[in-house]
UniProtKB/TrEMBL annotation:
Keywords: Pyridoxal phosphate. This is Aminotransferase class I/classII large domain-containing protein. It comes from the Eukaryota. The keyword Acetylation does not apply.
């Protein structure tokens, strides 16, 4: 029985509801009611669980913190279920309805990805393919389909050049190389200028001496103590002195070379590039009489950024250098705003084989002096003269005439003249101190191995071997050139009148389907596909007259020449080839 004057339960609830609604209008909602609800439920009743006014403030605070929306549910339920029961139901029911609604939406949402395949049993695991770790990582990574990182324009140019016809022909040879016994129908390589005519002489010397070089105490130059130590990148002084003596022997004593004016590099390609880095800046140009060695486009341009300007020579003058053509090319470059830094010549010329006369060298020195540019003389094949003419180095004129010696630079390939193409030894000879100083620093990136230098020092110091070698190699070059030219004449194929080098500059223009570069390339493909001979077309040498080809004979034997001529006959005498 209620006490008199005590407020009824209904009146207390109405008072509490009015106070709560007023607080809702004045206070912002809290992020979540759960912490306050948990705190409230964990409290023990202060008066034995009776719902008196002492609990109203706590309930009010909780209801206010839960926001206006929650009040619409919690308060009526509290009015139905007295005490804590209404509060609990008012909090749990909205949460349950919310999660049921989310579950309903997820069930009705269309599937955007294929359903997962059931997991295989342990007995079927061995039948599943194993995905490499890197591949599986790419499958789950969002970066797997990203665009590849870009390369430099330099790399793009180099990669594009690998797809040229020279690389394609050489690859055909590598895939199917000719051998007289094991592969007589293979591709014969006549496009690679690599001296193998005296390889047997060098091999015999190595067989006789290499064991002694490593084992006998008398040969101390190859001791490990001397090979371990640091050395100058531009070459050992001992090797420079030996090369100076060897070059003097090749030129029959007409010129003496100073070892202090030499820079040694790992091959002629490095020598050309190093010298080009010293003489020209990116965007500058070098005049080169054409046809010229196609390797120049690689060795002088790839990393230096220097351009080569071909200066065309005509067959009517046996492709000799014309000063008028050089003057015209220089003036045209000047009009385009291109700075010409040098003239590059080959003596003997490659691929034609012309020897530059004294008057031609005089004209070149006067031209470069007038234009205040450099002269680079490529004398790689000085030891391969096979005609009646005498070779003359530009160094001989510098010793006897009053020209500016600082603007003349000579490139020499020791490994080519010694039939050691795998040793890769190039020589820069210059009287320009600044060029020598800069080139010596650049050789850090192209130095010769110490073992190669030590072996060459001992080989060049063997005077008896060098004397016999020079005599035999001269005889072999003359003989091979004569046999090759005679074989071509039997097929009514003409050659340029060359006196040096290890190639024949062959005129096949009368066998072209059309007198154009396209017709020349068709003939090159026929030589490669039908005759199975890889050659160098004249367009790769920047020859402006279609139909000329470079045939290198220095990797052939005398018996191989007959095979080559029979194969060329397939193209020149077969009427079906020209249809």
């Amino acid at each position: 029985m209620e006490r008199r004057g005590a407020p009824s339960s209904t009146s207390r609830e109405h008072k509490f509801l009015n106070r709560a609604l007023q607080n809702v209008a004045l206070m912002p909602p809290s992020p979540s009611p759960l912490p306050q609800m948990t705190q409230y439920l964990s409290r023990k009743p202060a008066s034995g669980g009776k719902n008196d006014d002492t609990t109203s403030p706590s309930i009010s605070n909780f209801v206010v913190g839960s926001g206006g929306t929650a009040m619409r549910i919690i308060v009526p339920l509290q009015g139905i279920v007295q005490g804590r029961g209404g509060l609990v139901l008012g909090s749990v029911i909205p949460c349950a309805l919310f999660y049921l609604f989310q579950f309903y939406l997820r069930r009705k949402r269309p599937s955007s990805s294929p359903s997962p395949t059931p997991s295989p049993s342990s007995g079927d695991l061995h039948a599943l393919p194993v995905i490499p770790r890197t591949e599986s990582r790419n499958l789950i990574s969002p970066r797997a389909g990203s665009v590849p990182a870009p390369l430099s324009s330099r790399a793009a140019v180099v990669n594009k050049s690998d797809a040229c016809r020279l690389a394609a022909g050489h690859q055909r040879y590598l895939n199917d190389p000719y051998h007289p016994i094991s592969n007589p129908d293979g591709v014969i390589q006549l496009g690679l200028v690599e001296n193998q005519l005296s390889l047997d002489l060098v091999r015999d010397w190595l067989e006789r001496n290499f064991k002694a070089l490593l084992l006998e105490e008398g040969w101390r130059d190859l001791g490990l103590g001397r090979m371990e130590t640091c050395f100058q990148f531009d070459g050992l002084l001992d090797l420079k002195m030996a090369i100076a003596d060897f070059m003097g022997q090749v030129l029959q004593g007409y010129v003496s070379f100073s070892p202090s004016k030499m820079i040694l590099t790992s091959g002629a390609a490095s020598a050309f590039e190093t010298l080009c880095l010293c003489l020209a800046d990116p965007g500058n140009a070098i005049l080169v009489p054409s046809p010229y060695d196609p390797g120049f486009d690689r060795d002088l341009k790839w990393r230096t950024g220097v351009d080569l300007i071909p200066v065309p020579c005509r067959s009517t003058d046996n492709f000799n250098i014309s000063i008028a053509a050089l003057e015209r090319a220089y003036n045209q470059a000047k009009k385009r705003g291109v700075k010409v830094r040098a003239v590059l010549i080959s003596n003997p010329s490659n691929p034609v084989g012309n020897l530059l006369r004294r008057d031609a060298l005089y004209d070149l020195l006067e031209f470069t002096t007038e234009k205040n540019i450099h002269l680079i003389s490529d004398e790689l094949y000085v030891g391969s003269v096979h005609g009646d003419k005498t070779f003359m180095s530009v160094a001989e004129i510098l010793d006897t005439e009053d020209f500016d010696k600082c603007r003349v630079h000579i490139i020499y390939r020791l490994s080519e003249n010694l039939s050691l193409p795998g040793f890769h030894v190039g020589v820069i000879y210059s009287l320009n101190y600044n060029v020598l100083a800069a080139a010596a620093k650049f050789t850090r990136y192209s130095s010769i191995s110490i073992l190669t230098q030590r072996v060459l020092v001992l080989m060049l110091s063997d005077k008896r071997f060098i004397s016999e070698f020079l005599q035999l190699i001269g005889t072999r070059v003359k003989n091979m050139h004569h046999l090759f030219v005679h074989g071509l004449k039997s097929l009514y194929v003409n050659c340029a009148n060359g006196s040096g080098g290890l190639t024949c500059w062959v005129d096949m223009s009368k066998f072209l389907r059309s007198y154009s570069e396209k017709g020349e390339l068709e003939m090159w493909e026929k030589l490669l596909d039908i005759a199975k001979i890889n050659t160098t077309p004249g367009s790769s040498c920047h020859c402006i007259e279609p139909g000329w080809f470079q045939f290198s004979f220095k990797s052939l034997s005398e018996s191989d020449i007959d095979v080559v001529m029979k194969r060329i006959r397939r193209v020149t005498l077969n009427p079906k080839v020209h249809n």
